[in-house]
Amino acid sequence: MDDVRRLLGDDLARHPAPPLGDLVQQAMAQGRRLRRRRRLARIGGGSTLVLVLVIGLAVGPFDPIGGAPGDAGPPGGLTLGSPQSPAGTNSGPPPLGAPPGVGSDLSLRWAEGPSNAKRVLGTVTIRRKPVGATRLTSPEAALELLTRLLPKGRISDYAILSDDVPGMPFVQLYLNRGKGPGMLRLSIYQDNLGGGPAPGTVELTELPDNCVQDKMVTVHHGGGLQIDLLISSCLVGEGIGNPPAVPALSVEEAVDIAANPVWGTELPVDIVIDGTKRFSRLARPNG
Q: What is d(CA 214, CA 205) in angstroms, rounded to the nearest whole number?
């Protein structure tokens, strides 16, 4: 009997139990992913392929917090249009032409494959995250930052689609650049599982059979953070189907927005405050 106990003890020693903390963290992260899939499936349309939309730090040719590194930038962050612009109209980002190395280094390489597959387009250089006080990202703050990053056009139909995970909202708006409104949806997601794509990796998922999720650009920022920007080819219908619409952004424009370094589960205080003021009347989803 003693020999059996000794052999059993030796065998158990060769197979130590995994750290309980790692299992708990992985289970929590997996739970967040499942919740995200469910909310996208509930809101995103009738496609049989469910995708995780994640929105996070974006890299663009400008810094919405204050220009290129070393620049003081305009006080209070990027303005939301000129004084002459009507309410709900975006004047677009500042003129391009940042010094070399300041903007996003976008190099898209189109991969071959089925049209409904996720594919890696290439990489972008994610600039340094601005330094300063931050607060948890609210849906209103995500909408505020998104409107600051969009090109010139009239913005409407703001909506909060989900805020079930703190700091990881899922939001929507329409952008009209002169050819009618187009729908955009943005999602922020982060976990600590590790092993994801390298920071700066850009992915494109196309679902031609689902106009709401027609194209989705995903930019990975490192640390488990990814930003998903959905470019729809239709609008939300009023019980009679989804009317067709012109896509509001090109893939390249969506990459610039989703790669801006300001994105994250926390945003600068001024963006959070401005978003709360601007979108305070937006209804939040139940559950």
A: 8
Say if residues 208 and 116 touch (Cβ distance below 8 Å): yes
CA distances to 4, 54, 116 from 134, rounded to whole Å, are: 60, 20, 38
Query: What is d(CA 106, CA 117) in angstroms, rounded to the nearest whole number?
Result: 21
Q: Distance of alpha carbon 173 from its chain centroid, rounded?
A: 14
**Cα separations (Å) of 121 from 112, 148, 216?**
10, 25, 12
- Sites in the chain below the pLDDT cut of 70: 1-117, 286-287
Residue 87 is predicted with a pLDDT of: 39
CA triple 272-275-277, angle to 5 deg: 110
Under 8 Å between Cβ of 56 and 221: yes
pTM: 0.68
The per-residue b/e assignment along 224-255, b for 16 or more CB within 10 angstroms, e otherwise, is bbbbbbbbbbbbbeeeeebeebebbbebebbb
Per-residue pLDDT reduced to its tens digit, 9-40: 665 556 555 555 556 666 655 665 565 555 45
CA angle 163, 130, 156 (to 5 degrees): 45
Eight-state DSSP code of residue 131: P
Q: Residue 182 contacts by C-beta under 8 Å, 6 or more apart in sequence?
A: 174, 175, 176, 231, 232, 245, 246, 247, 248, 249
Which uninterrupted H or E stretch holds 98? Answer: none
